[in-house]
Amino acid sequence: MSPDKKVKILATLGPAIKTIDDIRQLVENGVNLFRLNFSHGEHADHAQRFDWVREVEQQLNTPIGILMDLQGPKLRVGKFAEGKVILQRGQTLRLDLDSTPGDANRVNLPHPEIIAALQPGMSLLLDDGRLRLKVTDKQADAVITEVIAGGELSDRKGVNVPEAVLQLSPLTEKDRRDLAFGLELGVDWVALSFVQRPEDIIEARQLIGDRALLMAKIEKPSAVIHLEAIAKLCDAIMVARGDLGVEVPAENVPRIQKDIIRTCRQLGKPVVVATQMLESMRFSPAPTRAEVTDVANAVAEGADALMLSAETASGDYPLEAVQMMSKIIRQVENGPDFQAQLDVSRPQAEATASDAISCAIRRISSILPVAALVNYSESGASSLRASRERPKAPILSLTPSLDTARRLSVAWGVYSVVNQRLHKAEDVTRTALEIAQAQGMARRGDTLVITAGEPFGQPGSTNSLRIEILR
């Protein structure tokens, strides 16, 4: 499958994907990796979809990554005696630990961590931000609030606490069971929800070990504050704009998205932009113009991958959504100023041989008509450093590890081929020329840039560059 775009597509699997043929069609139309959303569905459902992806991977002979997305803590109010109430602006509402059904004056908040963290003057958001409360007083087992923005509130609606850091693990007992199940299946990536601080990444990493890579979802204001420290500890970042857009003013989300992409590019960590990218295509075969522009902007900003959520998981037009996203990506990438924009925003290189080589191949691919940049990497680290530079030519990553190839499926411009372990740098050149032609990435007369290192096969040893013509 010859690569025709550099920005990757992450598609969520759900009840809209009914057969293995559905998954094959999605891959053939541009999906590079799949998401299993453990907020929904049973383990048996996820196992079936996992098996389908692995079978399609074999059919198409192309590495496909699989990401499991953990649900994280779900903070909710309790129940009401009448099922729902109407809150009026300016009234008082007590939130307490009493499990008795509530009324218009009080309701159970079964989360002592929230009550402990709140202070007078802080805000609470209910039902995805539709209702807003302000804390006026705090007691040992309750907080007293004033309704700032009222409306209907019903049983078990969600609670967001944007101004407080909660002494709460991002991993619930459900998450731990799901994580054990997903790691046993063999997922390539784990997306961690409810990240507030760097310590959350350390906690998750201790459970995951080296069995999968870790992607932190940035959806809390405290995570934005600690972004660089969190990004350094994880393997990738997801801009989770849904919950983030509830907890910060909506007008701040575009700037935060740009900041996250910029930080991840500087650190060389893949970044995924997610949530409501083509939301209207859940029920319509065509997106809105605003959605098209949103997708195009994320591509232009340098994101590694874009995610489809309900569009492919439960929508009426999953294939059309993938096709549309692929078309938008290709249109932007083929634009006259796309590469120039990426070059202007390129990150500062570190004083290493690997970064020097990566900068060189980016520059060479802008001067010569390079068909592909070929890199041999067992761990994938040097392919990620090359991807960080956003070169004009696609990156063909040769690796003996199928795990590495699957994990690189999220990285900008990187297309992996699993090849036997090579033993010397000369083998890379010969193998690269053969595989580039076989993959349809180069033809006779095309120029390839090939990188390798001595001592060969040692991580971080990339220190040589060759320009070859395919004869």
Describe the model:
The protein is of the alpha/beta class and 471 residues long. It has three domains: 8-72 and 170-332, TIM Barrel; 84-160, M1 Pyruvate Kinase, Domain 3 (Beta Barrel); 349-469, Pyruvate Kinase, Chain: A, domain 1 (3-Layer(aba) Sandwich). 37% of the residues lie in helices and 23% in strands. The strands form four sheets. Strands 1-2-3-12-13-14-15-16 form an eight-stranded parallel β-barrel, surrounded by seven helices. A six-stranded mixed beta sheet has the order 6-5-9-8-7-11, with no helix packed on it. Helix 7 (227-233) packs across helix 9. It starts with 7 loop residues before the first strand and ends with a strand. The mean pLDDT is 95.
Provide a quick synopsis of the model.
By secondary structure, the chain is an alpha/beta fold.
What top-tier CATH class of the largest domain fits best? Answer: Alpha Beta
**What is the second-level CATH architecture of the largest domain?**
Alpha-Beta Barrel
Largest sheet: 8 strands, parallel, barrel
The name of the CATH superfamily of the largest domain reads Phosphoenolpyruvate-binding domains
What separation lies between the terminal Cα atoms?
A: 22 Å
Task: Please list the strands of the largest sheet in the order they lie side by side.
Answer: 1-2-3-12-13-14-15-16
Low-confidence stretches: none
Shape: elongated
Mean pLDDT: 95
Count of spatially separate domains: 3
Classify the beta-strand content into a percent band: 15-25%
In CATH, the topology of the largest domain is named: TIM Barrel
The counted number of beta strands is 21
Number of helices: 17
Please state the structural category.
alpha/beta
- What gyration radius follows from the Cα positions, in whole Å? 24 Å
| Helix content estimate | 25-40%
